[in-house]
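look at this fold:
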Amino acid sequence: MKKIYLALSIVLLSFTFAAELRAQACQYDYTWLALGKDGVYPDSATNFISGNVGTPYVQNITVKVPYDTTVPVLGTVQFDHIDLQSSASNWGLPPGLTLSATPSNFHFPGNDTSCMIIHGTPTTAGTYNLTFVLKTYIVGSSFAVNTQTLTYYKIVINSPVGLSDNASTKFNVSNP
């Protein structure tokens, strides 16, 4: 009987773990991709969704690197890749949230679509201004031809939702 409970427990844990892994995989925004645009979505006008302390948070980000661009001095050049630089400060994300990407090294190839996901359970309310440093590489170059810092993204984390505890209220039961 103990073996059955142990086996059942292992099966349930594996399903829970598998569901958690699926929840952390990023998703493309196919509606935005259907517009045929290059760049990042959500954009600066749309920005990221807000969240609540103690409530799981998921923000998918779609990245479409163009095939080429025109540079004033060089003419038309092809994108090799764009790198999102890692950050010791975790890009300014709220505590409890992490950023992961496909591909996992944050190396987004030219003429390709990739995605990122911000996920986790926020622990502290506030407005968090994010900082992303992007380095652009063109075909035939071993050095970044452009470095851009994006500072317009933010995540607002609100206080927890639900009923609050009122520890100062005392309840007594007495006979009338």
